[in-house]
Amino acid sequence: MAAGAVRGSKGYWQITLAPGFTAVALRPIMHKMATLLEQVESDPMERRETLRLQTREQLRAALRELAPGEAVYVFCSLTQPYKFHARSDVDIAFLEERGRCSQYQIICLIEEHLHRPVDVLILYETRLKDKIQREGELWTG
Fold first, then answer.
1. What per-residue string of b and e applies to 22-61 under the rule 16 or more CB within 10 Å gives b?
2. Which of 18, 55, 65, 82 lies at a 20 to 30 A Cα distance from 48?
3. Which tens digit of pLDDT belongs to each residue from 50-105?
């Protein structure tokens, strides 16, 4: 049996070829495998950052639709590069009680847009007010 190798970012993978196949004939397949392996092994921190940026854009769109003109603080991992990950929730603090719908309704509506858990606080009702104002980002929907 012939053998070939596919190089990934973390090393080589040995491939044993069935009788009748040559490495030259399988070069396109081996190239495709290398490409797929590189995608699988791509830097997890870059994937985190891409996910964070995508989620920020989705949140902006959701707030423009659901809370147009309202100011909110976005805080925690969504504001910190490379901290947000696939299991992260989204943390938002509205400056004041919402008149159009309840806090629980807005949580559900934003979760539907983002397909991930969302925590919504009313800024002046939380003991975290100073920390949120100091470390969070003020957005307008």
1. eeeebeeebeebbeebeeeeeeeeeebeeebeebbebbee
2. 65
3. 999 999 999 999 999 999 999 999 999 999 999 999 999 999 999 988 777 889 99
Question: What amino acid occupies position 102?
Answer: S
Distance from C-alpha of 91 to C-alpha of 79, rounded to nearest angstrom: 10
Q: Do β-strands 90-94 and 118-122 pair in parallel, antiparallel, or remain unpaired?
A: parallel
CA distance 132 to 139: 13
What's this model's pTM, rounded to 2 decimal places?
0.70
Distance CA 141, CA 138 (A): 10
Q: Which value, to the nearest 10 degrees, does the dihedral of the CA atoms of residues 23, 26, 28, 33 take?
A: -90
As a whole number of angstroms, the distance between CA 124 and CA 130 comes to 10
Strand partners, 14: 5
Q: Which amino acid is at 105?
A: Q
State the Cα–Cα distance between residues 44 and 55, nearest whole angstrom: 16
Report CA torsion sign: 114, 115, 116, 118. Answer: positive
The tokens describing 58, both together, are: 């989705």
